[in-house]
Amino acid sequence: MGTPTEAPGDIAIAAHTPMMQQYLRIKAEHPGTLVFYRMGDFYELFFDDAEKAARLLDLTLTQRGASAGNPIKMAGVPHHAVEQYLAKLVKLGESVAICEQIGDPATSKGPVERKVLRVVTPGTLTDAALLSDKSDVFLLALCPAHNKRGGVASVGLAWLNLASGALRLAEVPPGQLDAALERIRPAEILVSDMLSSETLPSAPSGTLTRVPGWHFDVTSGKQRLCDQLNVASLDGFSAETLTSACGAAGALLLYASATQGQQLRHVRSLKVEYESEYIGLDPATRRNLELTETLRGAESPTLCSLLDTCCTTMGSRLLRHWLHHPPRDASRAQARQQAIGALIEAPAHVGLDALRTTLRRISDVERITGRLALLSARPRDLSSLRDTFIALPSLRTHVEQMANGSPALERIAADLEPPAACVDLLRRAIAEEPAAMVRDGGVIARGYDAELDELRDISENCGQFLIDLEARERARTGIGNLRVEYNKVHGFYIEVTRGQVDKVPDDYRRRQTLKNAERYITPELKAFEDKALSAQERALSRERSLYDTVLQALLPFIADCQRVASALAELDLLGAFAERARALDWVAPTFSPEIGIDIEQGRHPVVEAQVEQFTANDCRLDTGRKLLLITGPNMGGKSTFMRQTALIALLAYVGSYVPARRACFGPIDRIFTRIGAADDLAGGRSTFMVEMTEAAAILNDATPQSLVLMDEIGRGTSTFDGLALAWAIARHLLGHNACQTLFATHYFELTQLPAEFPEAANVHLSAVEHGHSIVFLHSVDEGPASQSYGLQVAQLAGVPSPVIRAARKHLAWLEQQSAGHGTPQLDLFASPAMAEDAPDDDPPEPVPHAAVERLRAIDPNDLRPRDALELLYELHELANADKSERH
Q: Where does the record place the DNA mismatch repair proteins mutS family domain (predicted)?
């Protein structure tokens, strides 16, 4: 910071007021972070932080007092509403240091002692108020490994879900970094402050945070990982050789523990992810298939929104993970599908609906466990955890009865055993319906602590004492309307109306004078007041102490809670898949070791749910039929057919049932899509450049086990260039990549490809022409299409009639020219001679027939039978009159 109004760091701290000195020291420890500095009932921000927060949160910027001779800019938020402001700042990518008062104002000399207890950043959220229920939040660190020439050989990744404690490592080639980040979707990415901009991800999904380069030291990272996992080496996790990933993990753990101000007790396991473990989905594919987000950025309608009928938020989050991580190993998918079948076929008395009803009462054990490990769990977290654990035995029995030999359900049932000691402690310690915050009291159950019960009895029995005292004093004084009452300002008092004051005994001491009454205190009432008020304060203090003790006592059960949470999430998701399969008439797919895709009567899962009637289609690919050339009219359903094939394949490997009459899949290693394109203005790339970049990635990386969707390749350039590129790309996919390909095109010349490559086949989307209109059948049939119906589609889109007529006439001329010269398709950049020979673009408008004009002028709904008959005679006369004129 410069000057106090802008950045006060360059003025000697000693020149500031004591409170500002304290603030500036705290701020110096958190550069680049907004500091919420607790002052009474508000969190205040000062100087640059105040200006920034006022702008981002629409707060009032004030200027109060001075420090070091300069005015202090301030902005503040009330402490009871701080979560909503934190949520907005985090969404904007900001980090906030929460500085609390930890000293006692009554005993402090000078400013009350303050300390930053936590730092809230986009990737380290654990508070329920800041988290989306159905999405995980990941903190990721990346650490490049360089080769001998100084280039990047690989990039080590470590990412952590702080809310659940799940930690993962991976090392990816530099070219796969963007795809990995798109799959993980971290909210915050940690990079070294020494990392060059060329090494950074091209389009990071989360906030970039730079930390000191020494945080990424590999040796320190390995040791920090071992300490965190309480192991001597990382060999048991297959992570010892992942040097750059271990460096990233070290930086990640250091940062995460610093933001929380404590150890990460729930991070006790590690998983290494390998590229070969999952079906590869690059960013373009995830976007085009609309797995969890539409092309316009909405959450619905997507595959995820269709499938997410989960009863718990844990199941919803797991669904997103499964959709973005389809395993290549078909046996994992088959195990899930076997479990789904068992859930669907279970007897009615232990059926799927009853199971899901029970699951709806289950709390978010995963996130509660995370907060418990960080000692930030609130009373209602613990009561929810207790209630869930109490429900587990019956749920476990239910799953056992439904398992029907499913290994997945049997494993889940075994994992639904809650830790008995944990349940016992929660039952004894936590009230049935505790207050939201410990400071409000009423959190610890009666009977758990004798001292607390005694203090509560003293505090809560005030009412009876006051009633008895009032009766005694009325009898003693003869004042019939005497009252004994209490308020927070004056405490306990005896109130006597002014007309009865002469009857007041000598031991009454005046406490307050009102207009019509006097209020008194007696030695007996004063003694009771001291005891009662002291008991209430001591009870709250005792309760806070007991609650902290309970949290500490629950820490040994963290691993058990995580096991239960994992089982509940998987059970819920399998139940949702079963419900979708039953409701939407989906079937269990089969798998084959032979390369190929065989779908009978497949349907697009999302589109089918949006329309009244959907046309199902077959799709067959194998080693003798590797590429389908798909032709047909615009709007005929080519893109829908291609996407549905990819989505059905993905659903099968995720472990779901699929929308088809029958489906069988061979091995799939990656799914590529080149469907549609938009320019990349920020990256300086045109639409055609984006299209060619995506095509290049497919041509370089696709294997015989890959599924490739190519839609209208080459349309962004001249006709001949586009045709040449499309032809060459299709040949390369067939001859070199030998991948399973769906290739949609408007270049009719490509339909000759099967004559050269028997592994290619023509299919088309059918349509029926009626006059100048068209009806799309959306059915996929063998053979090439006869025409594209472009003019009819333009007419349906509302292109003006004169334009359509001119286009139809010009099309006839082009077809005549093409036939005369043997030209496949005219270049869009044809010579000026073509324009000279072309007919007029705008022929004269034909004169409408009188009968037609008369028909256009009437509304059939307004005609009575007699009127209709008269109109028929009138039209007959108009038609005959026209006939006689022409003769």
A: 706-722
Whole-number Å distance between alpha carbons of 180 and 58: 36
Average the pLDDT over each of 594-603, 643-652, 812-821 and give the range with the smallest value. 812-821
Annotated binding site: 632-639
Cα 155 from Cα 157, distance rounded (Å) = 6
- Tell me the Cα Rg of the chain: 37
pLDDT in tens, 455-505: 888 877 787 888 999 999 999 999 999 999 988 788 899 999 999 999 999
Of residues 755, 559, 742, the one with CA closest to residue 647: 742
Residue 56 neighbours by CB under 8 Å, 6+ apart: 88, 89, 92, 94
Domain 139-277: which CATH number of 3.30.1330.60, 1.20.120.420, 3.10.580.10, 3.30.420.110: 3.30.420.110
131 with 115: CB under 8 angstroms? no
Helices (H) and strands (E) in the chain, counts: 29, 27
Residue 706, helix vs strand vs coil: coil
Pick the CATH number of 610-795 from 3.40.50.300, 3.90.226.10, 2.130.10.10, 3.40.605.10: 3.40.50.300
Helix (H, G, I), strand (E, B) or coil at 763: strand
- Write the pLDDT tens digit of every residue in 840-857: 444 444 555 666 666 667
Residues tagged in the binding site annotation for ATP: 632-639
Per-domain boundaries in the chain = 8-120, 139-277, 450-532, 610-795, 800-837, 850-886
Q: Which residues pair with 73 in a beta bridge?
A: 63
- Topology of domain 8-120, CATH: MutS, DNA mismatch repair protein, domain I (3.40.1170)
pLDDT band at 681 (very low <50, low <70, confident <90, very high): very low
pLDDT at 841: 45
Question: Could you tell me the two tokens for 213?
Answer: 């380069």
Report helix, strand or coil for 633: coil
Check pLDDT > 80 for residue 670. Answer: yes
DSSP code, position 447: T
Q: What is the DSSP letter of 622?
A: E
Q: At 887, is the pLDDT very low, low, confident or very high (cuts 50, 70, 90)?
A: very low
Residue 66 pLDDT exceeds 90:
no
Q: 391 near 365, Cβ under 8 Å?
A: no
Average pLDDT over residues 312-331: 97
804 falls in which pLDDT band (50, 70, 90)?
confident
Place of tokens 């709904």: 861
Backbone angles phi, psi at 260, to 5 degrees: -90, -15
The tens digit of pLDDT for each residue in 161-170 reads 999 999 999 9
CB 653 within 8 A of CB 327: yes
pLDDT band per the 50, 70, 90 thresholds, residue 4? very low
Q: Is the pLDDT of residue 731 over 50?
A: yes
Task: Decide: 371 and 319 in contact? Cβ < 8 Å.
Answer: no
Alpha-carbon distance 174 to 151, whole Å? 10
Structural fold of domain 450-532? MutS, DNA mismatch repair protein; Chain A, domain 3 (1.10.1420)
Question: Which residue bears the tokens 């709250």?
Answer: 540
Q: CA–CA distance from 781 to each of 445, 628, 761, 762 (Å)?
A: 71, 11, 11, 9
Q: Does 450-532 match 8-120 at the fold level? A: no
SS3 525: helix
**Dihedral over Cα of 318, 320, 325, 331: its sign:** positive
SS3 content of the chain, % helix, strand, coil (to 5): 50, 20, 30
